[in-house]
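Morning, I've got a small favour to ask if you have a moment. The fold is given in discrete form, as structure tokens running alongside the sequence. I'd be grateful if you could look everything over and explain what you see. No rush at all, and the record is pasted right below.
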Amino acid sequence: ECCTVAILRLYSNPDNKLLELSSQFIAASELLDNIIVTDVKDVHSVVTMIPKKLTLPI
């Protein structure tokens, strides 16, 4: 039997310190090496991650 699959790249949990400093506005995560292959029907939502290097004022 054939099924349609989704290939997913996982990200870490958001950086809590940055989330707190940004008043819950910036949820920065790191791309992990994990790759998941699953039936596309198991995907309930999609989140876009935009690559960006952030620097915080000291």
